[in-house]
Write a structure and sequence with these properties.
- 10% of the residues lie in helices and 39% in strands.
- The chain has helices spanning 5-27, 267-274, 297-303; strands at residues 34-35, 47-50, 53-56, 71-76, 80-96, 102-111, 114-115, 119-120, 126-144, 152-161, 177-184, 205-207, 222-226, 231-239, 291-295, 310-316, 324-327, 333-337, 346-351, 355-357, 360-369, 372-381, 384-387, 391-392.
- The strands form four sheets. Strands 1, 2, 3, 4, 5, 6, 7, 8, 9 and 10 form a ten-stranded antiparallel beta sheet that branches. Strands 11-15-12-14-13-16 form a six-stranded mixed barrel.
Amino acid sequence: MRITRPAQLTACLAATLAIFTATLQSTAAPTDPVSVAAQPVAGSSNVKVEGSRIILGDAPAATGSSEIKQRSGLAELVPVRFDTATSAVVVGYTAGTPDGSSADVDVRAWVKDRWTEWTPARSGTPTALPGASDQVQLRIIVSAPPTGGSPWVGDLTVLPTDKVDPSRISVQAAPLQSRVFATREGLVGGTTANGHVIVNRDHFVALPSRRGLSGNGSGTYSVKVCTASRCAFEPVWDVGPWNTKDDYWNPSAIREMWKDLPQGRPEAQAAYQNGYNGGKDQFGRTVANPAGIDLADGTFWDALALTNNAWVDVTYLWTGDGGRGTVSITSGYLNVRNTPNSSGAVVGMAGKSAQVTVECQTTGQTVTGSQGTSNIWLRVHSGMYVAKAYISAGSFAAC
């Protein structure tokens, strides 16, 4: 049958419309919330599952860096994938908080091949993501007084939505660095906010907000802490000192609390030095020092060779782009040396699972480690090197 030009045009338009409609349907965000399984993954601690609920576990109350005695549990759940990227999500859940307890839900997104910072998510309210992403993860934090009932979170769902202004939390070209006062945490035998039991000469740090808290055994959120001559690379495994909602490394407008303080200035420092908030922390305690970071004993004494509390330069590695590697050891720490050789002077340390910055790579002594045998050494700071044989990382430009 011969087709006339009008018929051809009509057929063409119909085919184009069909393709467009199919594409639109395949990329549209789902209209129904996606159920999130109550399935804690590695790094979770002191929680139990009953049906669709995550419930605080049975571990006794402990005192960590924040010096608040409480029972606490943390559950990171299996990530959720969407068909297409979204700039925001609506998280839904039910919760029970008996006897002065609390239950919080956070969300983070997979952006630029790494997890963003955790952002609090209120049930039924759109939460902006730091960047468009097709994968998100939820985290449950349940806390309670030393005695009483156990809080829970259940019936978790997540729904992509673009009906919200883009988040102002963003990954910068270079991670934020600030000069803050460091104190020694100690507390050997105690339990950190992520469930890690503190050992002698341990390697980790505490920051006063859960937004940058890594799961137990993870170094997703790590810092570089430097004195004039030494540097430590450590995972964030505890919350404190003083405050628990002072993410001072974020822009002032999006800090959880103390939004009138400049970025990089801890509330405890402002309270101690300037009488901010009447000289008290968020719990009404008089601030006795300006600490913005707590250091585990191994970080304090061994990695940085400190003998007293001191001012240090801290870089919050997850807040910026740049070369990264992950320390791959089963325990303890990795020495940072002043030459690409195991006989070089130790000028710092990197804790288990910590991320390290990588400026470039060079050749040096051949070393056998968890990543095989290699003569490649990574420069992680000016005049500081680690053996790539112990670092999970790709290749980098030559020094």
